[in-house]
Structure formats: C-alpha cells, structure tokens
Amino acid sequence: MDLFAPARAALASLPGEASAFASDAEGRALFCEREDEPFPSASVIKLPLVMTLYADAVRGLLDLDELLAVGDRVDGSGVLRHMRDVERLSLRDLALLAIIVSDNTATNRLIERVGLERVGERMREWGCERSRLSRKMYDFEAAKRGHENVMTARETVSLLARLVRGECEDRPTSDAVLAVLEQCQDRTMLLRYLPYGAKVPHKTGTLDESRNDAAIVPGERPVIVAAFTRRLRDTGPAISWLGILGWCAHRAAGNPGGPLPPELTRTA
C-alpha cells in the first residue's frame, strides 16, 4: 500500500515545481521527488543556522547568553521590525525568534555573529554539499549578484535526522534544538491537516513563488519529511499539497488519521 499516493496524485496538478523527500528514522526512503535538486530555501535555511549556533555553543565557541544589539530591522516575517523599544537580545532569544516566528531581523543578527562561512563549514561537516546559506535575509543586492540560499530535500531531511539521533554535537543539544522547532507557529503547510495540538518539530519558509516546510512527524515509526516549491503560479494549491504530504507522513508514522478534507478528496 502506497501511503503517499494522495501526495503523488496532488503533485500532478501543482502549478509550479516541487522537490520532496520523506524517510523513516533509519533513512529508508518513503517519498522522492527531485530530492537532490537545490531549491530556494526561504526561511527553512534558518534550521542549519540555529543548529550551528547551538552546536558551536557546546564547543565553547560562543555563549547563548551573549547579548547583541537588535540593530537594523528588516521587513518580512517576524516581530522585531515592529518593536522599537527592544534594544538587545541574547543569542538564545534571537534563535527562538528566528524559528518560532521566523524573524528576519533576529536571523540577520545570528548570521553576523556566527558567520556565513561557519554555517557552511558545519553543513559540509554534516554532509550537506548542495545546500548553502549565501546571504542574509532581505539582502536584495546579494541576491542580484547570484547569492541565493538553497537547500535540497534529502539534505534537509538528513539535518532533522541528525537531531533525532542526537548528533547535533550531543543528545542534550539536539533536544534543545528540537524543543525550539516544536514551537514554530506556522501550521499552514505540512501540519495543515494534522491533529490540533500535535507536537511536530518543523520549520517553514515562504517566498513570493515558494512555499516550503520540513518536519519530524512523530508516531510509532517517525517520518522525516522536507518539501520545497518554486515558480508557483498560485500558492494555494502548493499549501494544500504540502498539507496532503504532511497528512500522508502522519499516517506513514503509524498514527490513526481522519479523512482528508472534502475539498481535497476530489484531487488527492
């Protein structure tokens, strides 16, 4: 029985391009679609950034309690651009904001402190050769020069699998990152059709023509899934497809699942 059949069927009518990879905790592939092709990462790139931050803190290369000036605010997701009276935050709180509400200003302060090169070193150390953090958030001049943040679905799943195995330096550090990811507030994509209140470590990302998400779906047989889209002519079907993919992963993890919403059953 192909538990991902609804996701495969919905993908056929997606108004754009997609990449996805799902595996069990042992790395056995469950769903593959252009899984080794780099796609625009949007804010999913904040996952390896925060992993690097926490891992380097364990090595004593930095202190999560270190305070940084909030500095220049940038637009897009987050809350710091609206909070003019907040002047300094710890690295730990900046990481929380970068994940929970995908704050771009907080992310930029972390990138400045940790360094693009250091994140790249860590990603290569972790086996991510095609994914890369190339610029800060809302750095349009860098984007014009071809510096784009990209990830592959397979490598993104491998990062989450590393957390599951406790290999982001050690078990406590991995658990600390997972606890942050559980608090990501955007439940509109892979978590869209999952039971309310389900604790799912994940990180979403959006651009004008992209909707992305990567998650660890818990269950008797946990499933790790990452999906990226680009060149979307309509983002609505992409969000629905991501929801179907997450619903399939939830069932593949051994969870009882209700039916898909009626509006989706005609196409899934």
Descriptive report:
The chain has 268 residues and is α+β, with helices and mostly antiparallel strands. It contains ten helices and nine strands. The strands form three sheets. A five-stranded antiparallel β-sheet has the order 2-1-9-8-7, sandwiched between helices. Strands 3-6 form a two-stranded antiparallel ribbon. Helix 1 (5-11) runs antiparallel to helix 9 (235-252) and helix 3 (91-100) packs across helix 4. The radius of gyration is 18 Å and the shape is globular. The model has no long low-confidence stretch (mean pLDDT 94).
Q: Rounded to an integer, what's the Rg over CA atoms?
A: 18 Å
How far apart, in Å, are the first and last alpha carbons?
15 Å
**Low-pLDDT regions:** none
Strand order of the largest sheet: 2-1-9-8-7
What count of helical segments does DSSP give?
A: 10
Structural class determined from secondary elements? alpha+beta
Shape: globular
Q: Into which percentage range does the β-strand content fall?
A: 15-25%
Helical amount = 25-40%
Largest β-sheet summary: 5 strands, antiparallel
Total strand segments:
9
Global mean pLDDT: 94
Order of helices and strands: HEEEHEEHHHHEHHEEEHH
